[in-house]
Amino acid sequence: MNKLQPLWNHKALSIDKTLIVADLHIGYERELEDKGVNLPSQTNVIINEINEILSKNKYERLMINGDLKHNIPSGSWQEYKEIPELIDKLLEKVDEIHLVPGNHDGGIQKYLPNDVIIQDSSGHVFDDVGILHGHANPSEEVLNSDIIVTAHSHPTISMFDNLGIREKIHCWVKIKIQYEDYKKDVILMPHFNHLMGGNSINENGYLGPLLNNSKIKDEEIYLLDGTFLGKLKDLKSTQTGIFDNLNSEIE
């Protein structure tokens, strides 16, 4: 297996000449618009950041680990217009784009050019790395891979100051699990779309059958800049700033 490396200060990771991103949620602005929050499209911000990474490292392949689009069950005009534009611009930098569909990607075929290779929602294995969005059960092939990269949970850590003010900090999580008879290392990716606040894993846990049906032995938390924040069982929080244990290690 080639080196699997998070790209610090970017919500992306690499395997040799392959770049992996997840949870782009193109069209999220339309949901905000329905709630009375009007923002211009941020798709070009996403395109520019991915293109910057691709240009600096000369990647050959891009893998999108689920939730390329946002609105379900049907899409908005933004998805119909901007997803093909996004794919066309990214294909100027890479030879291949793969999509492991997420729970927001129903009917994604009608938004995509034929150039995009759509994998099964149960995951795909590339260079002995199982790539799984996380909303569906993993395939046997993914479970037999050396390590699993998943997304879907939009992981953040809630931190409280002494006044009880909470800040949600985006993070990476490295997890040791036992799923059925499989003992695996799992890397949980942050979501790429910067508009989305995320799910506080030290308050709400994880999403999806892989992590929710596993015995979790260890969870290491890393900030986006690569700082090791600690193990989740040691990150304890209350509104007073005196921390209570929220997770205990499974023996």
Task: Give your account of this protein's structure.
The protein has one domain (4-234): Purple Acid Phosphatase, chain A, domain 2. The model is unreliable at 237-251 (pLDDT under 50). The longest helix is centred in the first third of the chain and has 15 residues, at 43-57. Strand 10 and strand 11 (166-179) form a beta hairpin. The chain has 251 residues and is an alpha/beta fold. It has six helices and 15 strands. Helix 2 packs parallel to helix 3 (77-90).
Percent of residues in beta strands: 25-35%
Q: Count every helix, treating DSSP H or I runs of 4 or more residues as helices.
A: 6
- Let me know the average pLDDT: 90
Number of strands: 15
Helix share, percent? 10-25%
Write down the CATH topology.
Answer: Purple Acid Phosphatase, chain A, domain 2
Low-confidence stretches: 237-251
> How big is the Rg?
18 Å
Helix and strand pattern: EEEHHEHEEEEHEEEEEHHEE
Measure the end-to-end span. 29 Å
User: Main beta sheet: strand number and arrangement?
Assistant: 9 strands, mixed
So, CATH architecture? 4-Layer Sandwich
- Class from secondary-structure proportions: alpha/beta
CA-based shape: globular
User: Mind telling me the CATH class?
Assistant: Alpha Beta
